[in-house]
Structures are given as structure tokens and as C-alpha cells.
């Protein structure tokens, strides 16, 4: 009897996810990384947009999308992340594959052990470098590495991740899934009777020949016949093992993927809880996209220049010293101008280098200038400094003009 196995599909998903994780840092849009956190400038490069750390609300939205998206996936698909996409599972599966290949070629001697540990170190090195690439562009990373100028932070990060991943692959592996990883415990709080799970068909329990293949195939060592357990990672190995054994007997397998446990009346992947969670994710994603597309391409803040005093001029005007801090958030060099607006009566003028202020992309510029008010105000007055580019108003900042 022909049995369709799950493992080839799981391996294909793992390869696609690994290629994406390794390849994304090399993809560039407008000369910049597709996705990277540039720590020195405190900027997130996100699909062609530059999001500065001071735009915290966008970071918060992104974090909330990840959190609620993860909860939604767990609510609907259970621990499918663990068995199909988690880097821990993917690296462990690859290490076990290398163990089998090296064992078949070299046996179990010291040479085979040395080669295996060398392979673990290589995997750890690639994993550590891939992590750093999301903070340092790959081409810059390799140039700095070749010159020995990787820097203390990146160097310590590389070494720490290499040691952690090597120790994991050499000595720990699946024990993390069984004991340390909190995701299984989170699953208990988020799953319900409609969550995707692996289930032993109790209506055909008499057909089970007690061969133990499902237990032997399970990477976490559980017996799926005992029902849903926190250690189950939804990888489907038990399903394949049972299908192979039962297929030799001309019967279908006794284990299956199902949305919810049949004895609890499951079977609906989308219910009120999951639909509500999906709605939250979509609303947050819409807010993030809208916020990213409508964000200003420049920012402006204005402050008093120290404690400089207000000066009265012979013509009855008053001047005060200020400093403006401009940030160009666009991808091109821009030329900005500063203007001033005052409420009610009177005239205002900016004195200083306030026109044709050239700011390179993702750079800041400080501009010191004077605000001249005519006539001098009798009380403290709020003035508005406006930032324009090519005559178009970009943003503005209010500042208090002190009393003489």
C-alpha cells in the first residue's frame, strides 16, 4: 500500500526557511540591506525604509505583530513552528543527518568523532555569522573580518554564539525541546480543542501491533498513543513511522494530523479565538504599513542655545539664540530651509545659515541661528520653526521665546 510521507515536506520547508534566513542579509534595496538593524545609527533597515529608534511606535507595532502572530500560529497550528521551522530543530536535524553520513563513511573511530565535531563547529560558525549579518552588512562583515577589525562587540557575539551552538549540537540537542524551551508551556495556555495536533486513531487501536516504531522515531521520546503531550513538536516522524509499518501490512497508518482531538469535538481550524487573534494581527500590520508609508522624511527639534540671554536691539526688536537639530530620514541627500512663524501681531525673522542646509541620507545636522522678533514681546511667546524642502513643508517644532 502506497503511503504518503510527511518528512520530505518538512525537510523542504526547513531548507526554504534556512535559505531565506541566510539570503535575506545579502538582498539589497537602494544600496541598503533588505532587513538589518544598524546599531551605530540606531536605525532599522526594513524593506527599503529607514526606521530610527526614536520612532519607537513603529518598533512597538513590529514587536506586537511578532508576538500576536506567534500566538495565532500556535493557536491554530500548535507546535508546528518547533518541528518545521525552529532553528534549534533544523540544526539538530542537520547534525543528526551528518552523524549518519559520517558514521557510514568513517565508522565510529576517533577520526569520525573529530570530523563530526568539526562539522558542528562549522554549523556553529555559519549560524553565528548569519546572526551578525543582521547587524553588520555581509560585505562589510567579511572586509572587517579579513582586516581583523571585526570589533569587540561583534567579536564577542560571534564567539559566544559559536560556543553556544557548538555545545548545543555536541551535547544537548533535543533536551532543550523537552526541558528548557518555554514554547511547549505556552502551547498549553494557547491551544484549544481545534488546534492542529498529531493524534492516534483510537477507533482503530486494535490494529496497532505494538511495534514501538512511533516511539523510536519521536525526537523527544514520547508515545503519541498516550495523547497530546507538552513535549510533542508536531514534526510528524511518528506519523511516517506508523505509515511505513502499517503500509507493509496493507493498512493505512494509525496516526494523523488533525485540527483538534476528535473525542473533544474538534475539527474547526478557525474559531472565534483564532479569528480574533488574526484580526488583531491584521490591524497591527495595517497600522505598521500605514505608519511606515506616511512617516516624515525628516525630523526637527529646536532648543535654546544654552542660557544665552535675550538681547534688545536699538530698533525695538529682540533676538534670542537657538539650535536646530535636523535629521534626514530619506535615502538621498536633501537640501532644507528653516522658516519661522509667530502668532498674532509682529514680525519674525531667522538670522544665520538657515537656507540650503544640505544633509546626507540618514545623517543629522545642527544649525545655530537667531530668532528676531519685532517688536520685542512683553510676555513669553511661542514661535514655530518650520522645516521645508523645495518649498514644501516637512515638519515643524514649537519653541518658547523668552522675555527680555
Shape: elongated
State the secondary-structure class.
alpha+beta
| Biggest β-sheet description | 5 strands, antiparallel
Topology as a string of helices (H) and strands (E): HEEEEEHHHHHHHHEHHEHEEEEEEEEE
The percentage of residues in β strands lies in: 15-25%
Total number of helices:
12
**Overall number of structural domains:** 2
The N- to C-terminal Cα distance equals 95 Å
How many β-strand stretches?
16
Structure description:
- The chain is of the alpha+beta class and 404 residues long.
- The protein folds into two domains: 1-295, no CATH class; 298-401, Immunoglobulin-like (Sandwich).
- Helices cover 43% and strands 23% of the residues.
- The chain is built from twelve helices and 16 strands.
- It has helices at 7-23, 56-77, 80-84, 87-106, 110-133, 138-147, 152-172, 175-180, 183-190, 213-217, 237-248, 272-294; strands at 28-29, 32-33, 35-38, 43-46, 49-52, 196-200, 255-259, 298-304, 311-312, 318-328, 334-341, 347-351, 357-359, 364-374, 381-389, 392-401.
- The strands form five sheets. Strands 8, 9, 10, 12 and 14 form a five-stranded antiparallel β-sheet that branches. Strands 13-11-15-16 form a four-stranded antiparallel β-sheet, with no helix packed on it. A three-stranded antiparallel β-sheet has the order 3-4-5, with helices on one face.
- Helix 2 (56-77) runs antiparallel to helix 12, helix 4 packs antiparallel against helix 5 (110-133) and helix 5 (110-133) crosses helix 7.
- It is elongated and about 105 Å long.
Amino acid at each position: 500500500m502506497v503511503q504518503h510521507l510527511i518528512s520530505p515536506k518538512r525537510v523542504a520547508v526547513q531548507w526554504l526557511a534556512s535559505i531565506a534566513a541566510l539570503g535575506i542579509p545579502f538582498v539589497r534595496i537602494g544600496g541598503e540591506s533588505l532587513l538589518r538593524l544598524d546599531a551605530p545609527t540606531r536605525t532599522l533597515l526594513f524593506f527599503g525604509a529607514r526606521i530610527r529608534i526614536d520612532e519607537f511606535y513603529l518598533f512597538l507595532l513590529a514587536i506586537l505583530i511578532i508576538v500576536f502572530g506567534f500566538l495565532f500560529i500556535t493557536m491554530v497550528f500548535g507546535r508546528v513552528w518547533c518541528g518545521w521551522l525552529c532553528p534549534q530543530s533544523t540544526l539538530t536535524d542537520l547534525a543528526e543527518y551528518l552523524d549518519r553520513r559520517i558514521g557510514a563513511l568513517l565508522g565510529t573511530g576517533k577520526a569520525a568523532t573529530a570530523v563530526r565535531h568539526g562539522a558542528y563547529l562549522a554549523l556553529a560558525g555559519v549560524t553565528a555569522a548569519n546572526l551578525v549579518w543582521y547587524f553588520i552588512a555581509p560585505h562589510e562583515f567579511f572586509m572587517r573580518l579579513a582586516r581583523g577589525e571585526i570589533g569587540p562587540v561583534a567579536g564577542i557575539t560571534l564567539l559566544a554564539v559559536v560556543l553556544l551552538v557548538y555545545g548545543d549540537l555536541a551535547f544537548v540537542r533535543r533536551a532543550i525541546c523537552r526541558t528548557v524551551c518555554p514554547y511547549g508551556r505556552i502551547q498549553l495556555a494557547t491551544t484549544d480543542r481545534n488546534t492542529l495536533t498529531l493524534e492516534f486513531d483510537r477507533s482503530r487501536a486494535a490494529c496497532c501491533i505494538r511495534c514501538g516504531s512511533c516511539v523510536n522515531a519521536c525526537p523527544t521520546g514520547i508515545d503519541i498513543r498516550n495523547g497530546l503531550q507538552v513535549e510533542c513538536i508536531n514534526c510528524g516522524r511518528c506519523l511516517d513511522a506508523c505509515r511505513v509499518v502499517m503500509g507493509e501490512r496493507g493498512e493505512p497508518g494509525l496516526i494523523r494530523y488533525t485540527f483538534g482531538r476528535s473525542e473533544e469535538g474538534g475539527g474547526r481550524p478557525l474559531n472565534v479565538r483564532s479569528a480574533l487573534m488574526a484580526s488583531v494581527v491584521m490591524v497591527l500590520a495595517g497600522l505598521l504599513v500605514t505608519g511606515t508609508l506616511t512617516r516624515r522624511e525628516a525630523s526637527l527639534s529646536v532648543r535654546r542655545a544654552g542660557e544665552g540671554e535675550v538681547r534688545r536691539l536699538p530698533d525695538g526688536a529682540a533676538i534670542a539664540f537657538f539650535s536646530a537639530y535636523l535629521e534626514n530620514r530619506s535615502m538621498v541627500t536633501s537640501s532644507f530651509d528653516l522658516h519661522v512663524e509667530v502668532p498674532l501681531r509682529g514680525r519674525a525673522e531667522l538670522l544665520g545659515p538657515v537656507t540650503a542646509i544640505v544633509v546626507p541620507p540618514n545623517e543629522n545636522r545642527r544649525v545655530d541661528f537667531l530668532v528676531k522678533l519685532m517688536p520685542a514681546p512683553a510676555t513669553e511667546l511661542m514661535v514655530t520653526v518650520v522645516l521645508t524642502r523645495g518649498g514644501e513643508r516637512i515638519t515643524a517644532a514649537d519653541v518658547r521665546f523668552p522675555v527680555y
